[in-house]
TrEMBL record:
Keywords: Cell membrane, Membrane, Transmembrane, Transmembrane helix. The chain crosses the membrane at residues 21-40, 228-249. Residues 4-63 form the Polysaccharide chain length determinant N-terminal domain. It holds the Pfam family Wzz. PANTHER family: CAPSULAR EXOPOLYSACCHARIDE FAMILY, TYROSINE-PROTEIN KINASE. Coiled coil: none annotated. Belongs to the CpsC/CapA family. InterPro entries: Bact_polysacc_biosynth/exp (IPR050445), LPS_length_determ_N (IPR003856). Its main location: membrane. It is found in: Cell membrane. This is Membrane-bound polysaccharide biosynthesis protein. It comes from Streptomyces purpureus. One of its GO terms (cellular component) is plasma membrane. It is a multi-pass membrane protein.
Length: 466
């Protein structure tokens, strides 16, 4: 797994083999998300729109949006709403404004009830229009309107006086009279341009004359994140963290999977691989403690990072593999052929493979040099990988390590090899046990999988562990 690419099949294997754990984590995450939603009261958001007539540049619209959320506007809105202690700084986190297409400023307000959210948006929009008009000098009072009107009247009277003076000029049309009439015409043109500019600056046509486009709509639902969204997000987050944790642990795993790596760690050649029909292991006595029960309840007592067992051939084909391994072992053992089969403690697949090897060694003796048929006398021991200790009270000529690939690290296998060397056992070789999917039919007379066979040559089955 450490060198493999993370693929969808790997994630699917996690979801399939860890469904109990993921289901429990999803429930816990949903409860955490729901509890988080209880810490935050529900929020409701609505929007009021303000229209800005005339031609506006983009930067001017952004400026108006900033004015809508300024402290002056928010302070006035809070004072008008009559909320004690609710100033502009408190409303700043609950009011936002943005410039939209069509010269529209959208002001959004958030509150704990739909009614308050509606009132807040409407009041901020109204205060924004009032404050913006004041900044632009948009004063529509009688005094402000009387000034420009009086000025227009004076310009009209002056224009008439200029016409009278032009008509009363010297009719002889001397040079002086022509110059006078020309200057009066220029003065009249200048006054007309001034009146035109004054009309353009009229408050009725000024850009600051903003309009609130109706009251804000009362919100019908909560603003995100809602209680349901937090609950679902909590469940998905916990499941995602669990999947990422599994993938990270698999990436960091140092378990050996290939034959060259295993052979190098043990310092012995791999004599072959044998097939073991995969089945759910029976509960062992050491798994009856509370921790073991919790592991079975969560479904983590079975590894997820091993590939799905491939389909195996028939029983006869599997027995051929065992007989070939036994033949290689006989070739490496001196007479008398006594063998210590070492199995890592907790490796259920390897333990069943060792049982099959013992059965084949007993049922298929080979002829010795004297012409008599002899078999390999075996003894099976399970060795703890944490503190490996191999018993040395036997007369075996060598040791055979049986293990499953992808279950042990190089340090653990090196410890088993050192334990064999300390007990003065020479490693004859290594056998890899591979789980496969067996066919329903079984060959008659063959011992069932997982059965503990009688040891060949009359030796009693013994286990040793340290």
């Amino acid at each position: 797994m450490s060198d493999d690419t993370i693929r969808l099949v790997t994630i699917g294997r996690i979801l399939r083999r860890r469904r109990r754990l993921l289901t429990i984590l999803a429930v816990v995450g949903a409860l955490v998300g729901h509890g988080t939603s209880l810490l935050f009261p529900p929020r409701y958001t609505t929007t009021a729109s303000v229209l800005l007539p005339g031609a506006w540049e983009e930067r001017e619209l952004l400026t108006q949006a900033e004015i809508a959320t300024s402290s002056v506007v928010l302070d006035r809105a809070a004072a008008t709403l009559g909320r004690p202690g609710a100033g502009g700084s408190e409303l700043r986190d609950r009011v936002s404004a943005k410039a939209d297409d069509g010269n529209i400023i959208k002001i959004s307000g958030t509150a704990d009830t739909p009614e308050r959210a509606q009132q807040l948006s409407d009041q901020v929009a109204q205060q924004f229009v009032t404050f913006a008009a004041r900044i632009a000098g948009d004063d529509t009072g009688p005094e402000a309107a009387a000034g420009p009107e009086a000025l227009r009247k004076m310009v009209v009277q002056t224009n008439r006086r200029i016409s009278d003076l032009a008509e009363a000029a010297d009719p002889a049309r001397t040079v002086e009279s022509v110059q006078t009439r020309t200057e009066l015409a220029k003065l009249r043109t200048a006054l007309q341009e001034a009146v035109s500019k004054l009309d353009q600056a009229d408050p009725a046509t000024r850009k600051a004359n903003m309009v609130v486009m109706g009251p804000a709509a009362r919100p019908a639902g909560e603003a995100p994140p809602t209680s349901v969204q937090l609950t679902v997000a909590g469940a998905l987050l916990f499941v995602l963290l669990a999947v990422v944790g599994h993938l990270t642990a698999a990436r960091m795993s140092r378990r050996l999977r290939t034959e060259p790596e295993i052979a190098a760690a043990l310092g012995s050649a791999v004599l072959g691989a044998v097939d073991v029909p995969a089945e759910r292991p029976a509960h062992r006595p050491e798994d009856r403690d509370p921790l073991g029960r919790i592991r079975r309840l969560l479904g983590v007592d079975v590894r997820w990072d091993v590939p799905t067992p491939q389909a195996s051939g028939d029983e006869a084909g599997r027995r051929i593999r065992y007989r070939r391994v036994c033949a290689r072992v006989r070739d490496r053992l001196p007479a008398p052929r006594r063998l210590l089969v070492v199995v890592p403690d907790g490796d259920e697949i390897a333990r069943r493979a060792a049982a099959h090897l013992v059965a084949e060694a007993k049922s298929d003796p080979s002829p010795s040099t004297s012409g008599e048929r002899s078999s390999v006398k075996t003894r099976v021991v399970e060795v703890s990988v944490s503190r490996p200790l191999v018993p040395d009270d036997g007369a075996e000529a060598g040791a055979l390590v049986v293990l499953s690939a992808g279950s042990w690290t190089a340090a653990e296998l090196a410890g088993i090899a050192e334990a064999c060397a300390d007990a003065e056992y020479e490693l004859v070789g290594t056998v890899l046990a591979c789980p496969v999917q067996a066919r329903p039919a079984r060959t008659a007379g063959h011992p069932p999988d997982g059965a503990t066979p009688a040891l060949a040559g009359g030796d009693d089955a013994r286990r040793g562990s340290g």
